[in-house]
C-alpha cells in the first residue's frame, strides 16, 4: 500500500503548479514600503501539478464514503447525495455571483431562497424559516436566541433550559452560549421523556425544553402534545432538534405537534453531501409568534420581485455574514423538486423500513436496552459481547475489515456501549444484508476468537490508532525537521 | 426522480421479516391525531432533465455575471486553478461524514492536518483548527475565547472591522456578559490609537481589529499589539482577505494572540456568500480554550503514522454545556479546497498572486484618482481595496454605471452613516488592465 507522505515532505525549491498571466499594469515597486511584508512563508510547499493531483487522489482513496457503501452512522443520516445536484449548484450563475450583487441582478438566487423557505414550511408545518445558520448546532443557537429575545420582550429571559439525557451534546452547548443553565430531564423505561420529571422541573424559570423527535434512540415521543402542553402552560417554549426529521417527512409535521421552533439539517434529511464535516446548513423554522425575531436580512417578495429586508426592529441580528450556505440550499431545493410530495413521504417510509429490518435481523445477537418500537434508527449495545471482553469499539473496528463503515459509537449516553445504526432510505437490500451478515459473524467471533476483534481493523489504510497518545502529546501541525 | 433502491419484492420480504403487514404499521407509535394524512403541497416530481432546465432558468435570472464588477468587502473574486474543482469533487471527499472513525478517514484527516499546518505557516501562529463556518463566526468565537482566557467583561472592537462581522459578534456575545466598546478610525483609514489608548483598561479582555481592514487599509498591527499588551489585553486580528497573507507579514510575528478570518479567497467561488471558510489560529498556550475540531498526529499499532481528531475534551460531544464552542459540523470540504488551492499556488505562487492584487488595486486607485469629482478618502497603505468619496450622489452614479454594464463598488453609507457618497472598490488579479481603464473612462463620463 502506498503511504502518502505529507505534501511538505515532497516539497522542493522552485517547483510550481500554477502560473498567473504576466502583470499588465505598470508596477508600483514601493506600494508596500510603509508596512511590514514577508519574503517567504516558512515551510510553505513547492510542488508540481502532477504531485498535487496524485497527492489528493491517493488521499481520497484512504477515505470510506457513501459512494462506496453503507454508512450507518446513527443520527447522521448518511444517505446518497444525488450527483446532478452537484452540477446544479455549480452553474456559473450561482457560483460567480457576489453577495453584494444588486438585488435586481440576483433575483434567481433570492427566489431560490424564498422558495426553499416556503417548501420547508410546508414539510415541517412551521410558519417561517431562516436559511442563515450554517449547520445544525448553528441552528440550535439561533433558535435559542429567538426564544430568549421573545422572553426578554415579555419581561424576563428566564434562566434554565431543560434537555433530555438522550440529547446531542450540541443542545446543552448551544443553550449555554445563549446564557442559559442546563438541567437534564430523565428518560423513562421506554426511552422517552419522563412526564412526571418534566412537570416537576418545568417551572417559571424555564425558558424552553429542547426535544429531539424521534429521539436519539429512534423512538417517537408519543406524548409530544402533552409535553407541549406542560411546557406552554408554564410560559416556556418547545424547541425541536430536527436532526432526525428523516423519520417523519410526509408522515408527521413537527409544527402540528405544537412545537415553537425547530432546526433542520439540510446535510442530513435533504441529501446535501456532508463533505467530510461540512459545509452543511441548519435552517430554523418558527411559529408566527417568533417570526419577528428571525435574523436579518429576511427575503421578502413584492409583486414577484424579491428583496432583502433589513427593516426588522425585533430581529436578533445576524448569526453569520451574508445569507448562509447558499450553494447547500440550491442542492436541497433540487432534492425537494426532484422527489415531489410522494417522494418526500417515501424518504421516511423506506428509512424506517430499512432500520426496522436491521433491528429485527440483529435482535438476539446484540442487546437492545430499549424494546420500544423505533423509527429510522436503532440502538444496540455491546452488553452480550462484554462477557467475552469485547467492547463496542472492537465491534466497530472489525466492521471495517468487512468493508463497512461502523455505526455511531457510545451515543446516546443513556445506553452504555451503544451501537447506533441508521441505514437511511437509499440503502440497497443487498448492502443491508451484507451488514447484517457481518454483524452476526462478529457476534460469533466475539465468542470464539475475541482477539481478532480487539486487534481490528486488520486490512485498512492504517490499523487501530492510538487516540490517547494523540491527546497526551499533541502534534497538531507539521514542523520542518532541523538538519 | 427517486433515489430508492428497494424493489417491491425487497419491500415485501423485509416487511415479512419484521412481521408487520404494511408500511403504515411501522409508524404506529405516532398518534393518529398528529399524522399528516394528506399529501404535502409540493410541486410534482421533476426528472433530471427538467431539474437541469429549471435551475438553468434560475441561474439565468441572475444578471450579475453580465456586469464588470469591482465589489469586494469580504468576498473576493480570485482565480481558482482547475484542479481545485477536479480534485475536490471526488466522491471520496464529498460523501463521507466527519472523520469519527479515523482508520477509514485518513484522507480527510491528513488533509485537515495539512490545512492546519498551512494556516499556521500563513498566520505565524502555533496551532490552527479544522475550520469554522466563516470569517464572521470566527471573529465571534475569537471574542468568546479571549473572554474565557482573560475573564474580563470588556472587548474593544475596531469600527474598521467588517460591519457584518461586528453585527455577528454582537449577536453571539449578547448573552455571554461581554461589554462591547467600539473604536474609530483616522484619516489614514487606520485604527484611532488615541481612542484605543483611552478605552484600554483593566476590565478589557481583548481588542479585535481587521487587517487589511474594511476600508482596504493595512493596520499597524505591531502598534496595536504593543498598546494592548501593555494593558495585558489580548489582540485578535481578523483577516477577511486571506490572499494578503501571501505578502504581508504574518500577524503572529506582529504580536497578534489570536488570528481568525475568512478563507474564501483560497479556492472558493463567490457563491452569493456561502459556503465559505472560517479559520482560526492561536498561540499554543491557549489550546484548552480553542474552539472547533483539531486533527493531531499519532501512530497505529504497527507504528505507522496516522491522524485522528484530538483534544475532544474541549468539545460539545464530551463536555456538553462546558464546551469551548457548540460547533460540530464545520466547513471541511471548503478547507479541502483551500488546501488544494494553497498547495497548488505554493510558496511563490501565493506571493505572486498577492503582489498582482496590490498592483491591480494601486493601478485602479491611481486611474480613479485622476478623475474630477472624486477624492481618495483614506491615505493608508492598501492591499486590494480602497475608498473614494464622490462629490455627486453615489446612488445616481451607481445607477448610471449599471446602465453601462458596470458595478462600481460598494456604497458605504448603509454601514457607516458618516461616509456619505463614499465607495469601496476592489481590484484583483481577475481584473484586466483594459477593464480597469473602462471603469475609469465610464466613471469619467458619468461624473462629467
Structural class of chain A: alpha/beta
Average pLDDT of chain B works out at 97
The biggest beta sheet of chain B reads: 7 strands, mixed
Instruction: Give the total of beta strands of chain A.
Output: 12
* Count of separate DSSP helical elements of chain B: 13
Helix coverage percent of chain A: 25-40%
Taking the alpha carbons of the first and last residues of chain B, their distance comes to 57 Å
Strand-and-helix sequence of chain B, N→C?
Answer: HHEHHHEHEHEHEHEEEEEHHEEHEEEH
CATH superfamily of the largest domain in chain A: Type I PLP-dependent aspartate aminotransferase-like (Major domain)
Mean pLDDT of chain A: 97
Largest contact between chains: A-B, 199 and 205 residues
Largest sheet of chain A: 7 strands, mixed
Q: Based on the structure, what is the oligomeric state of the protein chains? A: heterodimer
Name the descriptors.
heterodimer; A: alpha/beta; Aspartate Aminotransferase, domain 1; 2 domains; 3-stranded antiparallel beta sheet; 14 helices; B: 448 residues; Aspartate Aminotransferase, domain 2; 4-stranded antiparallel beta sheet; globular
Structural features, described:
The complex is a heterodimer of chains A (483) and B (448). Chain A is an alpha/beta fold and 483 residues long. Chain A has two domains: 84-338, Aspartate Aminotransferase, domain 2 (3-Layer(aba) Sandwich); 344-469, Alpha-Beta Complex (Aspartate Aminotransferase, domain 1). Chain A contains 14 helices and twelve strands. Chain A has a seven-stranded mixed beta sheet, sandwiched between helices. A three-stranded antiparallel beta sheet of chain A has the order 10-12-11, covered by helices on one side. A two-stranded antiparallel ribbon of chain A has the order 8-9. In chain A, helix 6 links the parallel strand 2 (160-164) and strand 3. The mean pLDDT of chain A is 97. Chain B has 13 helices and 15 strands. The longest helix of chain B is centred in the last third of the chain and has 38 residues, at 332-369. Chain B folds into two domains: 64-79 and 346-447, Aspartate Aminotransferase, domain 1; 82-341, Aspartate Aminotransferase, domain 2. Chain B is globular. The interface between A and B is large, with 199 and 205 residues.
Amino acid at each position: 500500500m502506498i503511504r502518502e507522505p505529507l505534501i511538505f515532505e515532497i516539497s522542493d525549491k522552485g517547483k510550481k503548479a500554477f502560473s498567473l498571466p504576466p502583470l499588465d499594469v505598470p508596477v508600483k515597486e514601493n506600494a508596500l514600503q510603509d508596512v511590514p511584508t514577508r519574503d517567504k512563508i516558512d515551510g510553505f510547499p513547492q510542488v508540481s501539478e502532477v504531485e498535487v493531483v496524485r497527492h489528493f487522489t491517493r488521499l481520497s482513496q484512504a477515505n470510506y464514503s457513501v459512494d462506496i457503501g453503507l454508512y450507518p452512522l446513527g443520527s447522521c443520516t448518511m444517505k446518497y447525495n444525488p450527483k446532478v445536484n452537484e452540477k446544479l449548484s455549480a452553474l456559473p450563475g450561482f457560483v460567480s455571483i457576489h453577495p453584494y450583487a444588486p438585488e435586481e441582478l440576483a433575483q434567481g438566487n433570492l427566489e431560490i431562497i424564498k422558495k426553499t423557505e416556503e417548501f420547508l414550511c410546508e414539510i415541517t408545518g412551521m410558519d417561517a424559516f431562516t436559511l442563515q445558520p450554517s449547520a445544525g448546532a448553528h441552528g440550535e443557537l439561533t433558535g435559542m436566541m429567538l426564544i430568549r429575545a421573545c422572553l426578554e420582550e415579555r419581561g424576563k429571559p428566564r434562566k434554565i433550559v431543560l434537555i433530555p439525557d438522550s440529547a446531542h451534546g450540541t443542545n446543552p452547548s448551544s443553550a449555554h452560549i445563549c446564557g442559559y443553565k442546563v438541567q437534564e430531564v430523565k428518560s423513562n423505561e421506554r426511552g422517552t421523556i419522563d412526564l412526571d420529571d418534566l412537570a416537576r422541573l418545568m417551572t417559571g424559570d424555564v425558558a424552553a425544553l429542547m426535544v429531539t423527535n424521534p429521539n436519539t434512540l429512534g423512538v417517537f415521543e408519543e406524548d409530544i402534545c402533552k409535553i407541549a402542553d406542560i411546557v406552554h402552560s408554564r410560559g416556556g417554549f418547545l424547541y425541536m432538534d430536527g436532526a432526525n426529521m428523516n423519520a417523519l417527512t410526509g408522515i408527521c409535521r413537527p409544527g402540528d405537534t405544537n412545537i415553537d421552533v425547530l432546526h433542520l439539517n439540510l446535510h442530513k434529511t435533504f441529501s446535501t453531501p456532508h463533505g467530510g464535516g461540512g459545509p452543511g446548513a441548519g435552517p430554523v423554522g418558527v411559529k408566527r409568534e417568533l417570526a419577528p425575531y428571525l435574523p436579518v436580512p429576511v427575503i421578502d417578495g413584492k409583486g414577484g420581485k424579491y428583496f432583502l429586508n433589513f427593516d426588522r426592529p425585533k430581529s436578533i441580528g445576524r448569526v453569520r455574514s451574508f445569507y448562509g450556505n447558499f450553494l447547500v440550499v440550491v442542492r436541497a431545493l433540487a432534492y425537494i423538486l426532484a422527489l415531489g410530495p410522494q417522494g418526500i413521504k417515501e424518504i421516511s417510509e423506506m428509512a424506517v423500513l430499512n432500520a426496522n429490518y436491521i433491528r429485527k435481523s440483529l435482535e438476539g445477537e446484540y442487546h437492545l436496552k430499549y424494546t420500544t418500537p423505533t423509527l429510522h434508527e436503532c440502538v444496540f449495545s455491546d452488553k452480550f459481547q462484554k462477557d467475552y471482553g469485547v467492547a463496542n469499539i472492537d465491534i466497530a473496528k472489525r466492521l471495517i475489515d468487512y468493508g463497512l463503515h461502523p455505526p455511531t459509537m457510545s451515543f446516546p449516553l443513556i445506553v452504555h456501549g451503544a451501537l447506533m445504526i441508521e441505514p437511511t432510505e437509499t440503502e440497497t437490500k443487498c448492502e443491508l444484508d451484507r451488514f447484517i451478515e457481518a454483524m452476526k459473524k462478529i457476534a460469533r467471533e466475539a465468542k470464539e476468537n475475541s482477539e481478532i476483534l480487539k486487534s481490528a481493523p486488520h486490512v485498512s489504510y492504517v490499523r487501530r490508532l492510538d487516540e490517547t497518545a494523540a491527546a497526551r502529546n499533541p502534534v497538531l501541525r507539521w514542523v520542518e525537521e532541523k538538519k | 426522480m427517486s433515489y430508492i433502491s428497494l424493489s417491491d419484492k425487497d419491500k415485501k420480504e423485509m416487511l415479512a421479516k419484521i412481521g408487520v403487514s404494511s408500511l403504515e404499521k411501522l409508524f404506529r407509535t405516532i398518534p393518529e391525531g398528529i399524522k399528516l394524512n394528506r399529501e404535502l403541497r409540493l410541486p410534482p416530481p421533476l426528472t433530471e432533465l427538467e431539474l437541469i432546465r429549471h435551475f438553468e432558468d434560475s441561474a439565468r435570472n441572475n444578471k450579475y455575471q453580465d456586469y464588470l464588477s469591482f465589489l469586494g468587502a469580504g468576498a473576493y473574486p480570485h482565480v481558482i486553478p482547475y484542479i481545485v474543482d477536479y480534485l475536490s469533487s471526488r466522491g471520496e471527499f464529498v460523501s463521507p461524514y466527519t472523520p469519527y472513525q479515523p482508520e477509514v478517514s485518513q484522507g480527510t484527516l491528513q488533509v485537515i492536518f495539512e490545512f492546519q499546518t498551512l494556516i499556521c505557516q500563513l498566520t505565524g501562529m502555533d496551532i490552527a483548527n479544522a475550520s469554522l463556518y466563516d470569517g464572521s463566526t470566527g471573529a465571534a468565537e475569537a471574542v468568546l475565547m479571549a473572554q474565557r482566557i482573560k475573564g474580563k467583561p470588556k472587548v474593544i472592537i475596531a469600527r474598521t472591522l467588517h460591519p457584518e462581522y461586528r453585527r455577528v459578534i454582537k449577536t453571539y456575545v449578547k448573552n455571554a456578559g461581554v461589554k462591547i466598546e467600539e473604536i474609530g478610525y483616522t484619516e489614514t483609514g487606520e485604527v484611532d490609537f488615541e481612542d484605543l489608548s483611552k478605552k484600554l483598561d483593566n476590565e478589557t479582555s481583548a481588542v479585535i481589529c481587521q487587517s487589511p481592514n474594511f476600508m482596504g487599509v493595512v493596520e499597524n498591527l505591531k502598534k496595536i499589539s504593543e498598546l494592548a499588551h501593555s494593558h495585558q489585553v489580548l489582540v485578535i486580528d481578523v483577516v477577511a482577505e486571506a490572499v494578503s497573507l501571501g505578502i504581508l507579514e504574518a500577524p503572529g510575528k506582529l504580536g497578534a494572540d489570536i488570528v481568525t478570518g475568512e478563507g474564501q479567497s483560497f479556492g472558493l467561488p463567490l457563491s452569493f456568500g456561502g459556503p465559505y471558510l472560517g479559520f482560526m489560529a492561536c498561540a499554543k498556550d491557549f489550546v484548552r480554550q480553542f474552539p472547533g475540531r483539531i486533527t493531531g498526529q499519532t501512530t497505529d499499532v504497527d507504528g505507522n503514522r496516522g491522524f485522528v481528531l484530538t483534544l475532544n475534551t474541549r468539545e460539545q460531544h464530551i463536555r456538553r454545556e462546558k464546551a469551548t464552542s457548540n460547533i460540530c459540523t464545520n466547513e471541511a470540504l471548503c478547507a479541502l479546497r483551500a488546501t488544494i488551492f494553497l498547495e497548488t499556488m505554493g510558496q511563490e505562487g501565493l506571493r505572486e498572486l498577492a503582489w498582482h492584487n496590490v498592483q491591480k488595486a494601486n493601478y485602479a486607485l491611481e486611474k480613479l484618482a485622476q478623475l474630477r469629482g472624486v477624492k481618495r478618502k483614506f491615505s493608508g497603505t492598501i492591499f486590494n481595496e480602497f475608498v473614494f468619496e464622490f462629490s455627486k450622489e453615489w446612488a445616481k452614479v451607481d445607477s448610471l454605471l449599471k446602465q453601462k454594464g458596470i458595478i462600481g463598488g460598494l456604497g458605504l453609507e448603509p454601514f457607516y452613516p458618516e461616509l456619505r457618497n463614499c465607495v469601496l472598490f476592489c481590484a484583483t488579479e481577475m481584473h484586466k488592465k483594459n477593464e480597469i481603464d473602462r471603469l475609469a473612462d465610464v466613471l469619467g463620463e458619468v461624473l462629467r
